[in-house]
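Recall that a protein's primary structure is simply its ordered list of amino acids. Everything else, from secondary elements to tertiary packing, is in principle encoded there. The following example makes that idea concrete.
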Amino acid sequence: MSWGFLRDLLSGVNKYSTGIGRIWVAVVFIFRLLVYIAAAENIWKYEHDEFECNIKQPGCENVCFDHFFPVSHIRLWALQLIMVSTPSLLVVFHVAYRENREKHHNQKLYKSPGELDGGLLCTYLISLILKTGFEIVFLVLFYKLYNGFKVPRLVKCDIRPCPNTVDCYISKPTEKMIFLYFLVATSCLCIVLNLSELSYLIFKYSIKCYLKTYIKKHQ
C-alpha cells in the first residue's frame, strides 16, 4: 500500500503539536513507518511460503500456520500504525473547521486557528487518549495472539488434518524476534510520550486557569 497519506497526516498535525508531540511524530515517522517500509515488510514477505512442517499431509501445513499465526505480525503492525495515527485527524479537522468558520463569517474569530485553547485543546487531549489506548490495545493483542513477544524456532502442531504431532519450523525467527522487540520498544516509547504530553497540557491549562482566577479575585 502507499503510505503517502499517513506521511502527509503526520506532517500536517506536526504544525499544531507541542514540543513533545513533535518528538512523537518523529518517532512514528522515522522509527516506525520508515523501518516498516525499508526493512520489516521484507522480512515477513514470504513467511507462509517459508513455513515448513516435516510432513506432506495435504492441508496440515496451512492449518498449523493459521493456528500459530492467526494474523501476520507485519499486517498487525501496519494496522497499529494506521490506528495510532488516525486520531490526529481530529485535530486537523478541528483546525479546518475553525478556518472555515472564520472564512464563513469573514472575520477573525480566533487568535490563531491552530492555537491549542478551548475546544481545540479538548480535541487534542482526546486524540492523545485515543492514541495511548490504541497503543496499549495492540500491545495486549500482540501478547495474547502470539503467547508473548517471542518467535520460536520450532512449533509442534497436532491439529487436524495432521495425522499426529508434527514439527514446524519458522523462517528467520531471530530476525523476526528482534524486530518484534523493536516494535514493542517503540510502542512503549510512544505511550510514554503521549502520557507526558497529556500531563504537560493538563498541568499547563490548570496553572493558566488558576492564574486567571487568582488575578480576577485580587482585582
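The beta strands are 52-53, 154-157, 166-169. Helices lie at 4-14, 19-43, 60-68, 73-85, 88-105, 118-145, 173-218.
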